[in-house]
Amino acid sequence: MTEVTTPRQALLEVKGLRTAFPGEDGPVVLVDRVSLSVHAGETLAVVGESGSGKTMTFLSVLGLVPRPGRVVAGEVRFGGVDLVQLAPAELRAIRGAGVAMVFQDPLTALNPVFTIGDQLVEVIRAHRPLRAAAARKLAIETLERVHIPDPSRRVDDFPHQLSGGMRQRVLIAMAIALGPKVLVADEPTTALDVTVQAQILELLAELRAELGMGMVLITHDLGLVAKHAERVAVMYAGRVVETCRVEDGFADARHPYTRSLLGSIPRLDGPPGEALPAIEGMPPNLAALPPGCPFEPRCFLGRGRETCRASRPGLAATDREGHASACHHWSELAEDAA
Amino acid sequence: MTAGREVEHDGPLLRVEEVGKTFESSRGFLGRRRSTVRAVDNVSFELNRGETLGLVGETGSGKSTLGRLVLRLVDPSSGRIWFDGQEITALGRRRVRALRREVQMVFQDPYGSLDPRMRVGSLVAEPMVVHGLWRGDGPSRVAEVLGRVGLEPGHAERYPHEFSGGQRQRIGIARAMTVHPKLLVLDEPVSALDVSIQAQIINLLRALQREAGLAFLFIAHDLAVVRHVSDRVAVMYLGKIVEIGPRDALYGAPLHPYTVSLLSAVPVPDPQRERGRKRVVLHGEIGSATELPPGCRFHPRCYRARLIAAAARAPTVERAGTRLPALCVQHDPGLEPMGGAHRAACHFPERDGQRSELARAAAVEVASPSR
């Protein structure tokens, strides 16, 4: 599961992606120069807090940025084409059959007045020239794949007849029905109980292996990253600030934000009762970013430092292979660990 | 309950005895099929002064309803509740209002609990006014409390929508603190907040607790957060406390198979450690408090009952195609002492010497408290 020694062609490659919304004082950049890649059979976790741009990045990838926002720069390479340049109809064909997304809230993502079978069949027939009966058969098979018990009966249920965990399984079924190459799961278990969360993530891992998909797991839960992802990209204020293999990043991050984030969460295996090393302050207002590093005011390493206030660091390679950091002073963290 | 009482009752601050709460719900077309939901079922516990009791459970566990019973926001269907030596089970409206001065609540969604048309200063002053405690020093008390929760005096002039989620939770906490309560019921106080803000609020709550000698009933679904803040922890499943005990005992050596499964489902942010852990897979889904099964309410999902039956360690019966111990299917276990203050409601608890391989493999090696 973890051998990634042979460099492979990325399934999905995002380069320099930039998404902006018009603001009162000029455009507000929600996604800024984001570059990422997703390979077959691997899970990339994208971690960040509210407003960090993690969801907006993948809405941009799929051409789903809500108006009046738009992608203003960058490329999204998938299957030899740049998705950013595609017409809406062409993009629609790729969404679902090429890159599919599972959203957070299974109740709002399903239409309450149609059965889950109707909704699955609709997705299938929008992409494949199948007769109703054949589409229904495929719908039932897909429900079976996501381990919905008694699928030939449940296919005629309405969303409200299912539990939260079952609804999330239905959404996953809709996403994989057309055999996508890349599955983007946006906080797929946030609304679910912890025992159900574990079941859903196990299902996603199983489907990834079975279908050879590349997966993106958008989450704020660092425990899920540790368990389910091979690589991680940490986002802050619209940019990727660190990207590395999960095994490297957790023990030995090269960005102060990642370090602080890991240090500030209560852990089941940590010392209880002590004051948590919290990150003081709040994430910056994207409409009024300072010229320097947006994390500088909260940073244990760079607060008040001239270099950090003067310019915003770009994502650059560190001493470790496949590990990049957007920090002027990452090398101090590396020495720290040595 | 009078403000000027000098002598403190020396028993537990809160005593809940065999409390139950049932709701009638109508199901089916035009509500013709009526059924009873046992949201809280025969629950007993105590909470001491200055202590934090964590209350964990999943959807339908009844943990939020239990919090509301303590506040008398809902009336119990059975059982009795004492606060500070006085029975509060059947207080009249005026006495309930007096109670609410001493028992305050902090909600999950601070935005939903703050009137958007009121300025922060008025919001924080409101509980003092309601409880007749607004005196000449009111404004300075508001400023003091705002400062204490990490807000600035100037924030008093602003409206809730001008604040971030973390700041709004600070406002919610300030409101609760102005009237010098003895108990705070906190219902998911940090679960809507971003990770970096969660730690700030947890630290603030702990500091306030230490300064004011407050007791907390801390209701949450996040087992790591609850472990961090609690002295003792109670685990609820479908309306019932299935395990309760001192924090380190409960997390270090969980007795109830449900607690074991819950703990094993929480991933630890450490890749090496996490990938070596095994998860206990529960069968099926969380049941419903409307259709409680006979016997132990956890038996349809319990891995341990299956193991015990398979090892033929007890007489078995067949239920829904599965062989299970007859005890689990026929008798609802009571919350029994299992050593010290640790209690569990299970016929076959995961005790030393009888711990299943699964429970051992799922355990997290817990760092001991460095105090």
Could you describe the 3D structure shown?
The complex is a heterodimer of chains A (338) and B (371). By secondary structure, chain A is of the alpha/beta class. Chain A contains 13 helices and twelve strands. Chain A is globular and about 65 Å long. The longest helix of chain B has 18 residues, at 195-212. Chain B has two domains: 14-230, P-loop containing nucleotide triphosphate hydrolases (Rossmann fold, 3-Layer(aba) Sandwich); 253-367, no CATH class. An eight-stranded mixed β-sheet of chain B has the order 6-7-8-3-9-10-14-13, with helices on both faces. A four-stranded antiparallel β-sheet of chain B has the order 2-1-4-5. In chain B, 47% of the residues are buried. Chain B is globular, with a radius of gyration of 22 Å. Classes of the chains: A alpha/beta (338), B alpha/beta (371). Chains A and B meet through helix 7, helix 8, helix 9, helix 10 and helix 11 of A and helix 6, helix 7, helix 8, helix 9 and helix 10 of B.
Structural class of chain A: alpha/beta
Spans of at least 5 consecutive residues with low confidence of chain B: 1-6
Shape of chain B: globular
Main sheet attributes: strand count, strand direction, barrel closure of chain B? 8 strands, mixed
How big a fraction of the residues of chain B is strand? 15-25%
Model regions low in confidence, pLDDT < 50 over at least 5 residues of chain A:
1-6
Name the largest protein-protein interface in this structure: A-B, 50 and 54 residues
Query: Class of the largest domain in chain B, according to the CATH hierarchy?
Result: Alpha Beta
CATH topology group of the largest domain in chain B: Rossmann fold
Q: Measured on Cα atoms, how large is the radius of gyration of chain A?
A: 21 Å
DSSP strand tally of chain B: 14
Please report the total strand number of chain A as a whole number: 12
Going across the biggest sheet of chain A, name each strand in turn: 6-7-8-3-9-10-12-11
| Number of distinct helices of chain B | 13
Q: Helicity range of the residues of chain A?
A: 25-40%
Class inferred from helices and paired strands of chain B: alpha/beta
